[in-house]
C-alpha cells in the first residue's frame, strides 16, 4: 500500500516564516534530488503526523503529491520539537526507478519465545540491532525484514549473513565485510540475583 502525502509549494522562507507556518498548523519542508532543483513545501501538520506515526512511513517509498503532481520520495530527515513532540521540519528525497537507494529498514523479530535458549535455557533475547541499511531499487524496498529466532541457543547470536532477504535487496554492511550480530540469547540477571540472595541467607 502506497502512502500518499499531500503538499503545496511554500513561498515564504526563513525562520520567521517557518514559525508562522507552524502556528497556522502546517509543517515546512523540502524535496530534493532526482536531478531536479530543491523545492520548498508545506504540509498539513495533523495529516502528516497521522502518517508519520506508522513504521512504514520511515522505511517505504512514499508518494508525494505536490501541486497535483505525484513523485516517489523517501523520508530523509526531520526535526521534532523537544517538548511538544511535533514535527518542526521535514525533508524528502526523490527516488529514481532505475537507481539503487540506501534505506534503513526495521527488523521484526519472531519466535523468540520458542528459541531453545529461552524455552529450555531460561535466557532472554537481546536485540543488538533494530534496523539495518539496505541497498535496492525502489520497487524492491521491503517495509521490514523478518528475523526468525526459533533455533537460537543460549549464548549464540544471529548475524546479518544468516538473514534471508527479498530478491534484489542486500545489506550495505555485508558489502563492507561487516557481518554484525542482530540478536543473541543472554542469561537473565534475575537468576544471578536470586542465587546471590540464597547465598547471603
UniProtKB/TrEMBL annotation:
One of the GO biological process terms: translation
The record places domain Large ribosomal subunit protein bL25 beta at 100-188
Q: Can you provide one Gene Ontology molecular function annotated for this UniProt record?
A: structural constituent of ribosome
Which stretches are annotated as coiled coil?
none
According to the entry, every stretch annotated as the Large ribosomal subunit protein bL25 L25 domain falls at 5-92
The record, for Pfam families, names: Ribosomal_L25p, Ribosomal_TL5_C
Arranged from A to Z, the UniProt key words for this protein are:
Ribonucleoprotein, Ribosomal protein, RNA-binding, rRNA-binding
Q: Name one GO cellular component term.
A: cytosolic large ribosomal subunit
Q: What is this protein called?
A: 50S ribosomal protein L25
- The scientific name of the source species is mine drainage metagenome
Which taxonomic lineage is given here? unclassified sequences, metagenomes, ecological metagenomes
- Give the gene name: rplY_9
